[in-house]
Amino acid sequence: MSATTFKDLDPSNDIVNTKTLLHEAIPLTGSIVSGTYAENNIKNYAHGMFQSVYDYPYLSSSANHIFDVTLGYSSTSPLSSSINRTQNAKKINIYNQMAQTLMGFDVTGNVQNFDEDGDLIGQGTKITEAYFVNFSRLLTKDEIKKGTFSLTLGVGGSGSYNWRDSQGNSIFDNQLTIADTNAQNDYRVNASAGEYGILYASASTDSLSSTVLTTNDGTQKCGLIFYQAGVVVLSGSVFHKTNQGGILHNTEYTQHATATITTTDYNEVGTNNTISIVTTAGDTVTITGHASATAMSDTTGESLLGTFAAVTSNNATATNIATALSLHDDLTATAASAVVTVTQSAGSAGNTSITLVDPDTTGMTKTDFTGGSDGITVHASGNYIAHDAFTSGSISGSADGLRARIKNLSFNNTTELNSAIYFCRIGHNEFNYSSNPTYLNGSKIRTKTTSTDNPVSYITTVGLYSSQRELMAVAKLSEPLKNDSTQDMTLRVRLDY
Amino acid sequence: MAFLDNSGDIILDAVLTDTGRYKLARGEFNISQFALGDDEIDYSLYNKTHASGSTYYDLEILQTPVLEAFTNNASSLKSKLMTVANTDLLYLPVIKLNEKKLTTKRHTSGAFLVAVNNDTENALNDNGGLTGVIKGENAQSPNTTIRLDQGLDTSDISPAMALDSNLIETQYIIELDNRLGKIVSPLLSTSFEGASPSIIPLEPNFIDDDNIASYAVDTGNTDYVSENNSTDTTAEDGDQTLAGPRGTILQLNIAASLDLNTGTYLFSRLGSTDTGSDSFQVTSAGSETVNTSYIDTTLKITGVQTGYRVDVPIRFIRKQ
User: Fold this and answer.
1) CB distance A479–B81 less than 8 Å?
2) B139 vs chain A: nearest CA distance in angstroms?
3) Chain B residues lying within 8 Å of A437, measured CB to CB
4) Which of B24, B80, B5 is nearest to A420 (CA)?
5) Which residue from A251, B163, B239, B312 could staple onto B245, CB 3.0 to 4.6 Å apart?
6) Which residues of B9-21 are buried (b: 16+ CB within 10 A; e: fewer)?
7) What are phi and psi of B126, to 5 degrees?
């Protein structure tokens, strides 16, 4: 056999094609999205159709475009038919563009609106007002990995830019965690832009109020995420109270004032001992010690003739006090041992005093009402985002409002690597000599002393060639590999596309 | 390119070459064979007299750091490993430039000069001509020829002995920048029609993305490759450059490209200009000073069987 420097690859045995998935974690903190760069990383356009977010001031060549924010509503939304809407046509156009691109058209050729649960045939609830967060290819690569998306979104405060509302409440006093929970096992394939999952909201553990959601069991649908398209469709309902058609709790943002009454010696509590409480409505509720009766004279408004039985023990007396007070509609009271905790029915108006009339030896002590607050509201104007943002706000201004509410955003992306693996099989007597000029000294092989010595060569490079012997790919070993006649070797070269 | 991390497991760093990407874009990407290289290895570090024994002979070689893969197809696998069934070889053939004859010598500058047009040819060849000048426009004889001999370059074995048939190079790959010149037969002249024979260049197998044309010639191209049957043992006195057994002879000429023949654009872009004080200035045989523009390049010749490669310096030269 003549000397040769090439060896053919057997297509059936030496070349294998595989596909592997590579995932990267993409964390985006809210301070990058709004704050760190004083809005210099935010690019607004003259057309006002969307806003671009960069990871660095966008005039710098180091800046990378990371996502766009825009919003819109369907022509079927009640908002679209109202007058005096800012950028009304553009908001409708944006919605339609996103809907036709992502969801496609129905059988009659009409744009398919975003559906809350992806059940297009069932014609369930549609998402007719939505924010759109379009991630750049740089972040999503081939697709967002299902089940990894998470967005912590502040739903408190008011105004689009303000971090605290007029009552001192932060945007982030109440937060939602929005995620495509279990999407890896439950996603939809009936859209024109590929696979998509349902976004669910739950109350963030960082929220001051655990009742930020009317139903906090992880089933609150609040948007869609299109994995291959890299687009999040966030329903306007995330900023809506339930009575406005959203998912947020209606009233539970008020903090109720509490006070305590402690029975220290029930023997000293009698018919000349009274407890007077001013309710949030300004009515006085008075209960008086009694030998046996526990009752409330009027359960609403002013109530001055209630009684509680001061008998048996301090604990029993405390229980009777709690029972009597709870009979009034504006008060809630519970007893734990000898301590009665009384809770007002509303916010800051409940920060009142308790008056104890205890003329003899002290039988009771008290603390006045504190902690009552009206403050933790979703929006000071009631429905700022879901209404004002879509109506009076410009697209870029409302995009500012959404950005300011993003506390954390993260997902994993996926890159599909299509690989061709070439098994370069080297027999024990193959590639045993070298054409390296240093291999010879006057035509004599340096690594041999006598002709019977085994030839030795060292491999640093694998070249993959076409049939025309064009060098198509090169692989380098990290260190020289000794090739002698004592062993066969297989070098596995993987090319990823 | 940086060195590869050699602190842990052996890894393979693989990349597509520029040619590979080019072919991929054209839908012509197909890999059907492989070769192995050892470009970084300096075999002179192989210490057969190491005091600690044979395990240590290649200690320094195995510590050689390896560079990351180059994407330029012409920069990798300059020296390949070769398979020879006979493991008892002590000598391997080389390819060596043969300058024994006046017509195969390089110019004193160290390169073969290719005169790219008629004016330059005449200026350099007045009064008998300069050594090492190839007529790039009129490639007919007499002309300087590039000749390479293949065989064992050792006096340990008599040239009268036959070279192992497995080691006789029967095919050569010739690479030359296609913008500058083309490979032509050294046996041009009366074999072509016309008073001034037209030059029919060899057809390249392919031209890569860097304009490097690759030609293949074998023993079937008798104008280029011929057996070297000389057993002349007085090599120094004859026309043989190899002291040992001989294989084949490769002869070729270079024709200037049309761009070099007709214009100076590439000389301005890729070359330089000789001035009177420049050491590269060419003086014609008639003692006339010829100021020239020139482009230096390399003619790469590789034996397909043995992988042995020789780089021949070429200077394309044009009279100003």
Assistant:
1) no
2) 29
3) 79
4) B24
5) B163
6) eeebbbbbbbbbb
7) -60, 145
Q: A182 is written with which tokens? A: 């279990």
What residues contact A482, with CB distance under 8 A and at least 6 apart? A456, A458, B58, B62
Centroid of chain to Cα B153: 18
Give the minimum alpha-carbon distance from B9 to chain A in angstroms, rounded to a whole number. Answer: 8
- With bands split at pLDDT 50, 70 and 90, how would you rate the model's confidence at A163? very low
What is chain B's Cα-based Rg?
22
Separation CA A489–CA B2 (nearest Å): 26
Copy the structure tokens of residue A372.
């009552």
What phi, psi does A350 have (nearest 5°)? -85, 0
Pairwise CA distance, residues A265 & A262, whole Å: 9
Instruction: Identify which has the larger pLDDT, B1 or B69.
Output: B69
Residue A489 confidence class, pLDDT cut points 50, 70, 90: very high
Instruction: Determine the 3-state secondary structure of B234 from DSSP.
Output: coil
* Residue of A433, A483, A492 to mutate when probing chain B, most B C-beta within 10 A: A433
DSSP for residue B6: -
Instruction: Please state, in angstroms and rounded to a whole number, the distance separating the CA atoms of residues A240 and A25.
Output: 31
What is the least distance, in Å, from the CA of B115 to any CA of chain A? 30
Rounded distance, CA A1 to CA B92, Å?
A: 15
Residue-level pLDDT at A254: 62
Q: Do A480 and B64 touch (CB under 8 A)?
A: yes
| Tens digits of residue pLDDT in B98-157 | 998 888 889 888 899 898 988 888 877 654 567 888 888 887 656 788 999 999 998 888
Q: Which two tokens stand for residue A486?
A: 């004592």
Distance between CA atoms of B68 and A475, rounded to whole angstroms?
A: 8
Contact yes or no for A322/A337 (Cβ under 8 A): no
According to DSSP, the β-strands at A457-465 and A444-445 are unpaired
Partner B contacted by A12 (CB < 8 A): no
Residue ranges per domain, chain B?
1-81, 94-319
DSSP 8-state symbol, B164: P
Residue from A161, A204, A159 nearest A379 by CA: A159
Strands (E) across A158-270 are located at 175-179, 196-203, 220-226, 231-235, 258-263
β-partners of residue B15 are A474
> Is residue B66 a contact partner of residue A458, using CB atoms and an 8 Å limit?
no
Q: How far apart are CA B231 and CA B242, in angstroms?
A: 10
Chain A window 137-166: which residues touch B at a Cβ cutoff of 8 Å? none
Torsion of Cα atoms, A244 then A249 then A250 then A256, to 10°: -160
How far is B319 from B289, CA to CA, in rounded Å? 10
Query: Does residue B68 register a pLDDT over 90?
Result: no
Cβ atoms A254, A212 nearer than 8 A: no
The distance from CA A200 to its chain's CA centroid, rounded to whole angstroms, is 9
- pLDDT tens profile A123-140: 788 999 999 999 999 999
Ramachandran angles phi, psi of B12, nearest 5°: -115, 120
Query: DSSP per residue over A425-467, as a string?
Result: EE-TTSS-EE--GGGEETTEETT-SSTTSPP-EEEEEEEEE-T
Q: Specify the DSSP class assigned to residue B201.
A: P
Q: Residue B93 and residue B84: Cα distance in Å, rounded?
A: 12
SS3 B283: strand
Omega before B142 cis (within 30°)? yes
Q: Name the nearest CA neighbour of A199 among A217, A218, A175, A173.
A: A218
Residues A302 and B75: their CA atoms lie apart, in Å, by: 97
